[in-house]
Amino acid sequence: MIDFNVAPFEVVRDYDKCVNCRVCERQCANEVHHYEEGFGKMISDSTKCVDCQRCVCLCPTKALKIVPNRNSFRPNANWQQKYLTEIYKQAESGGVLLSSMGNPEPFPVYFDKILINASQVTNPSIDPLREPMETRVFLGAKPQTIQRNAEGKIETKLPPRLKLSMPVMFSAMSYGSISYNAHAALARAAEKLGIYYNTGEGGLHKDFYKYSANTIVQVASGRFGVHKDYLEDGAAIEIKIGQGAKPGIGGHLPGAKIVGDVSKTRMIPEGSDAVSPAPHHDIYSIEDLRQLVYSIKEATEYKKPVIVKIAAVHNVAAIASGIARSGADIIAIDGFRGGTGAAPTRIRDNVGIPIELALGSVDQRLREENIRDNVSLVVAGSIRCSADVVKAICLGADAVYIGSASLVAMGCHLCRTCNYGKCNWGIATQRPDLVKRLNPDIAAERLINMLTGWNHEIQEMMGGMGINSIEALRGNRLMLRGVGLNERELAVLGIKHAGEV
Amino acid sequence: MKKYVLIGGSIATEGAIEGILSVNNKADITVICGEKRPLYSRPLISYALEKKTTDEKMYFHGEDFYEKRGVKAIYAVADKIDPEKKIVFAEGKEYPYDELLVATGSKPFVPPIKGLESVSKKHTFYTMDDMLGLRADLEKGGKVLIVGAGLIGMKCAEGVKEYMDDIVIADMAPRPLPAATTPEAGSIVQERLSSIVDFRLSAALDHFEGNKAVFGSGEEVSFDILVLALGVRPQVGLLKEIGAEVNRGILVNEKMQTNLPHIYAAGDVVESYEAVGESKRLLQLFPSAFLGGKTAGKNMAGEESLFLTDIPMNATNLFGVRITSAGLFVGEKTEVTVGEDYRALYTEGGFIKGFILIGDSARAGILTDFIRKKRPIGGVDAKELLAGRDLSLYPAEERRAALGGKYEI
Amino acid sequence: MKKIYVKEEWCLGCHLCEYECAYANSGVSNIVLALKDKEIDPNVKVQTDGKITFAVSCRHCDEPMCISACISGALSKDETGAVTVDKSKCVGCGSCVMVCPYGAVRITKEGTANKCQLCMNNTFGEPLCVKKCPNGAIVFEEK
User: Fold this and answer.
1) Scanning A204, A239, A347, B261, which has the fewest C-beta atoms within 10 Å of its C-beta?
2) Smallest CA–CA separation between A69 and chain C, in Å?
3) In angstroms, what is the C-alpha Rg of chain A?
4) Which option is the CATH number for B322-403: 3.50.50.60, 3.30.310.50, 2.40.290.10, 3.30.390.30?
5) Which CATH architecture is the domain C1-57+118-143 placed in?
6) Are A246 and A283 in contact (CB under 8 A)?
């Protein structure tokens, strides 16, 4: 049989620097490197390399680099090498192509075409190191009016809310798609930071119930791991309708990752593929959704906000409008670049819309319908840095979810092979020897560091705009300008072009 | 304040000082040392000859060891102990004590051999003075006859190698190191060293005629320098005459107490508890002296301490041949040869009783710990233990605690 | 005192510590020069019980057997409590090897004892095995 596979990367070893310590060999779960007695040196099999950079990072003499393989099919702007390679794969396997993490294709990144304002002379900027700067946000429905008693205390019964120290939360990543240690790190970091992490649709390991005050529990179409204690444990409950990486289909965890505690936590047999149904079979309308929202509220005595998470698709604004009327407290919208532990490649790379455009239209629609205060908006789908957070808030978000960014903080290099289950960084794997590689003490610290840095940056940017609270930033589109965007794009985003006053 | 008096100025005394000071760092300690030198390490004498160390470095904790610790050093020979009045007499002076340690050590054994007086250059090899005397004679080179192929004789041979043209070692035993090793190991050592040293074994010395030794077989060996290394004898006199229980050495219990109140003993002079044979033995080893002394010191200062883990052990390097042994060579023997190395393990009822390693001794201390602490070896094969060993041999919990700093093995 | 402790649940068995130790104690400032074509003899050794790996180096015991058995005074405790080796005093008798229950002292090719000295004698200032452990399995802490 002809081997059509071409290594996408090439491992380049500087033999002047390699000291044959074999650390790369021990650290590569893909078995790329080995010491060849015959040659008396290390050799690498590039065909197995996924470019996760583990060996590069651990090499004590920095003797390794991984570069794109220069082996080239005859260049063709239409029949790009990628398509040929994928066809070879499918011609061999007959299967659906699977991929992981977010859409890597060169679609426009609108965040990169938006610029943030700053004050000059008038409306002076604020120095966050010297003056108060409020990044705390509350998520949930906002009452239309507030009644106060004679002492000035609020009398209005406030709906249940989530209190965040900064407008960022860790998005849903199930225990199973990521490791126990990754979950532990997220939970600890959320607690320390005063934000929330999200169980995803994999249930909640018993060890993590102690973080309940900072846990959002998810109810997805597979209902894996959902039971009374689980619902009661969450600070909020999220109904997952869709996911940005794979709108229209359900979650998908390969059986290889359903082992031990993962199977117990999900309440499904070991080794069985956890394939969530595409829809919730009890939700075929906004009315059905309302029933589930209220069933959950009833079950949890109206003490917890309910989040409904959808993927950003073409009619996202209308759907969001429906959700805002369903009794949900928070709407989470996941853009087409959102990450995943496993998704069909075609869907990941071709379905859904950018979160920036979805957010612009949803916020606008809810305000037009005067129901914006019924809900908070949380957006996800490739928030990469604090500037993305600021831009999202200016476009109307209350807060953002970060998934990929949090994994990157823990060591992920976006090699996008989570579905192999052999994550060399100990994140997207259940293999005990690999899970061990992620020390949650270190990972939690790195998460906290990253978000601490982001929060400083958010404050700096807010101060620069002369704004001292997230409340005043939300939906403040005047603080944004587009660059190189056409009229339609600007209209959907609801922002002016750079240079316009 | 309690007065601690320690007779003897070597390793057991050093241990006792450490022991006493660990309980009371301001204790009033007096050392009465007949050797009239500050604390030094006797095993270094061969290395000093060999120039692997210097005379200065033989004072291995510095010449001010006593001063630094606030210990009074009296360089005098102790003549008598009055256990009633609790006084030590030394060269006409009286030293009252509350707690007394007798660490008088031992003396080289010199048998009455006919004609010995006719030998012009004869030495024993035990103290620093012995070494200095021998060295003075060595300058002219020639041939040395060492009588006794035990550790002292063998190390002496190594020490004089550089100076002498010929080294002859004679012993009644059929192989070198008869006491410290097994017949197998002794033979290997003999074989390895036969090109360096002229062994005359199973040779009983009959008499000397000037610088010529005549053996029972009629064989004659002439020499320029004679070294007598026929073993050492504990100096038990001080205690024997006041009624202490004495066998070959002074008998002490696990606290290093003699049968006389307030009198302890440690070091080469005692017969003390040995953990493999579970009986009292004359060990006369460096670590036994230090740890026995330390145990005595702690008990003298009022902190109860038992020395229950003393075992025979020895590590040395003879002309590049490393010999490491511990425990007793009893029970079932397992031997392996790895390249040039010979290794033997002795086990009984699932416990290691002893081992001897010629050559690589890496991590031998783990085997020693198994012997000292009577750890069962479980299902581990003796050959594996000889092939190599590491911390995985200890119970996982104990290992984890030790590595995590919650426990010391 | 500050000592090196090993959290074996996080040890990956990557052996980086051994190479970093060899580098730290090589006296050579370039790591490649220090390690290239050299057989390393580090003060820390990764061992395994078949399932778990752990890096073993000197424990700097409160009552160190190695010092009790050292005939030359080469091994001693410094004022911080660390067990140190003075190679100029060592005569290579191997008594320390015979008694260390951790197997953490060895006689090197030079014929003298060597062991972990907490990187106090090199320019790194902190134990390099600790600094370079990728997973926090080796820590340098006061306990």
Assistant:
1) B261
2) 27
3) 24
4) 3.30.390.30
5) 2-Layer Sandwich (3.30)
6) no
Count CB-CB contacts under 10 A for residue B111.
Answer: 10
The residue behind tokens 């270094």 is B44
Mark the ranges of chain A whose per-residue pLDDT is less than 50: none
- Establish if A15 touches chain C: CB-CB under 8 angstroms: no
Domain residue ranges in chain B: 3-43+53-106+233-300, 110-230, 322-403
Question: What value of ipTM does the predicted structure carry?
Answer: 0.96
Q: End-to-end alpha-carbon separation of chain A, Å?
A: 65
Q: pLDDT by residue (tens digit) across B270-290?
A: 999 999 999 999 999 999 999
Cα(A54)–Cα(A425) distance, integer angstroms: 7
For the structural domain made of C62-115, what CATH number should be given? 3.30.70.20
How far is C134 from chain B, CA to nearest CA, in Å? Answer: 18
Nearest-by-CA chain C residue for A28: C14
Point out the residue among C8, C69, C88 whose CB comes nearest to the CB of B403: C8
Nearest chain C Cα to A24, which residue? Answer: C14
Alpha-carbon gap, residue A283 to A291, rounded angstroms? 9
Q: What is the 3-state secondary structure (H, E, C) of A236-280?
A: EEEEECCCCCCCCCCCEECHHHCCHHHHHHHCCCCCCCEECCCCC
| Per-residue 3-state assignment (H helix, E strand, C coil) for B258-324 | CCCCCEEECHHHEEEEECCCCEEEECCCHHHHHHHHHHHHHHHCCCCCCCCCCCCEEEEEECCEEEE
Which of C5, C61, C98 is the closest to B324 by Cβ? C98
- C12 in contact with chain A, both atoms CB, cutoff 8 A: yes
| Closest CA–CA distance from residue C36 to any residue of chain A (Å) | 5
For chain B, the distance separating the N- and C-terminal CA atoms, rounded to the nearest angstrom, is: 36
Six token digits for residue A317 = 């604004």
How far is residue C142's CA from residue A404's CA, in Å, rounded to a whole number? 36
- Rounded to whole angstroms, the Cα distance separating A226 from A203 reads 6
- List the structure tokens of B143: 């041939």
Q: What is the structure's pLDDT at A256?
A: 84
Distance of residue B392 Cα from the nearest chain C Cα, in angstroms: 5
pTM score, whole prediction: 0.93
How do the domains of chain C map onto residue ranges? 1-57+118-143, 62-115
Helix (H) / strand (E) containing A242: none
B35: left (phi over 0), alpha (psi -120 to 50) or beta: alpha
Cβ–Cβ gap B287/C106 under 8 Å: no
* Interface contact flag, C10 A436, Cβ < 8 Å: yes
CB pair distance less than 8 Å for C31 and A58: no
The CATH homologous superfamily of the domain defined by B110-230: FAD/NAD(P)-binding domain (3.50.50.60)
Classify domain A158-463 at the CATH class level: alpha beta
Give the chain A residue whose CA is nearest to the CA of C53.
Answer: A433
pLDDT tens digits for range B226-264: 999 999 999 999 999 999 999 999 999 999 999 999 999
* C-beta atoms of B396 and C52 within 8 A: yes
Q: Which two tokens stand for residue B88?
A: 């030590």
The residues, ordered by sequence, that sit 6+ positions from A467 with a Cβ below 8 Å of its Cβ are A126, A473, A476, A479
Topology match between the domains B3-43+53-106+233-300 and B322-403: no
Q: What percent of chain B has pLDDT over 90?
A: 96
Helix or strand (DSSP H, E) at A114: strand A114-116
Q: What percent of chain B has pLDDT above 70?
A: 100
**List of E strands, A398-467:** 399-402
Q: Which top CATH class is A9-72?
A: alpha beta
C50-63 pLDDT, tens digit per residue, is: 999 999 999 999 99
In the beta sheet, which residues pair with residue B314? B325
- Hey, what CATH topology would domain B3-43+53-106+233-300 get? FAD/NAD(P)-binding domain (3.50.50)
**Secondary structure letter of residue B37 according to DSSP:** S
CB contact (8 A) between residue B409 and residue C54: no
